Amino acid sequence: MKRKKLTASIMVLILAVIGMSGCGQSGEAQSSAREERMANNELIVAIGSEPETGFDSTAGSHGAITKIFFSTLFKRDKELGWTTDLATGYQVAPDKLTWTVTLRDDALFTDGTKVKAEDVVYTYETAKNSGADIDLTMIDSMKAVNDITVEFKLTKPYSPFIERLAYLGIIPKHAHDQSFKDNPVGSGPYKLVEWNKGQQVIAVANENYYGEKPKIKRLTMAFLNTDTAFEAVKNGTIDIAAVNGILAERKIPETKVMDIASIECYGVCFPMIANEGKKAKDGAEIGNNVTSDIAVRKALNTAIDREKIVSGILNGYGSVSTTGLEKMPWLNENTILDPSEYGDLRAAKKILADGGWEDTDNDGIVEKDGQKAEFKLLYTEGVYRQEMALEFVKTADQIGIKVNLEKVTWDTILPEIHKEAVLYGFGSGDPSELYNLYYGRCAGGTVPWDNSGCYNNPSVNQCIDKALNCTNEEEAINYWKELQGYASVKGDAPYCWLVNVNHVYLAAERLSLGKPVVQPHGGRIFDNITEWTWEK
Questions:
Q1: Residue 27: what pLDDT?
Q2: How many Cβ atoms from other residues are within 10 Å of residue 373's Cβ?
Q3: DSSP letter string over 210-222?
Q4: pLDDT exceeds 70 at position 308
Q5: H/E element holding 241?
Q6: What would the pLDDT profile of 248-264 be if each residue is shown by its tens digit?
Q7: What is the three-class DSSP state of 273?
Q8: Among 209, 217, 313, 421, which has the minimal tally of Cβ within 10 Å of its Cβ?
Q9: pLDDT by residue (tens digit) across 171-188?
């Protein structure tokens, strides 16, 4: 009873401690509380925003939290390869349309019932019919052959289908009702015991978990913004929180900074065709008369000093990216720019001049055939995005291109998403993301940010078609690599890639995260949660 009262008051304690931190309060109480958590194998972590749809994996993604309560059929390993989870393996039929997945027979849900093939089928059918944020349109049908065998029939060959089999947390058919999102039943390493909405979620280790048993026996996840979470770690009421590069540089006693490699990449997407008043399938206007000129795209790629963004904006917590794929197994290394090939304003100006862009009226903006080199750059809320966008604008100005910065939301961006440049963040660890970025036939379709620049190169489309038609990811890699020769800065330059952003955490000094997986866009910090432990 005492323990429940304490946990229900964590948010009150956090706010009180932060409020008193400037009033000379001793840190002994906070240190003592953390020592008690260490002794009891308990942990409090700040996780940012609260899942709006609750904890129903068929209704929406919960990012890293999915791996707390649910198991997936497969999962990426720490080198971005594949390994099993609930599944023991799969086979693809010669026609490439039938995927047969075999399940382990020792997995239990947290209510003690066995995980069966019918639960997998129910999970995928429900997600497909609910409009969840995963594309399952390639599935024609699915059935449970027996308790441990699931058969998926696809509408067409789709080599990255295993990525879909690693996305959804499997839920029990018998327990999925209206209250499920508030009281989830899964087969992951933890089970939910209390959710104080707007404050925190409390979970305990799942004694029925088939995998490596969690060393942290009680896990509290508090919903805090970055600044509040930072202060809470500083004062000992939170044990780990995501921070930015600036906060990470502050020296806080009894804490450490964890700098985790990431495939989260940021870049500017250019509209690739001229504006002739045409509209996309989604109804938005298409094209830009400035960015459709390859000289403009090449000049901006050449002018941007990416090292400056890493050292200045990211405070060193990241790395240069000129492809968006530097950490991926399917990277075509021949498409990477050498440091001597970017950050060069003189070379960028020459590219513009050779392309017919000249400042004839001395107003600082180059023009061509009466068209001023001026366009918008749209960006959304997020860590570092505004600073990156401002650096892009400043660099463009130095070579005679005027870029007008505009902050938008993912709703208000839609009318201009195909006719103005957009700053995006990507990095799923899935090669089929190249389909979303560059496939001509998905431009201006039902998902407006898929190939929002309306890039359409027949050679790229052909490579993607061949890659998707392969039996598996390994067989498809050569095609994913080949298309990069066209869709890179050394080819058509549909993007100006900027940097990979590392995921940075401030944590209690004695907390160990084991060996985390490489972090994708949005984060997967909990993927190896069973390795987390307090060091003695």
A1: 55
A2: 25
A3: SSSPPS--EEEEE
A4: yes
A5: strand 240-243
A6: 888 899 999 999 888 89
A7: coil
A8: 217
A9: 999 999 999 999 999 999
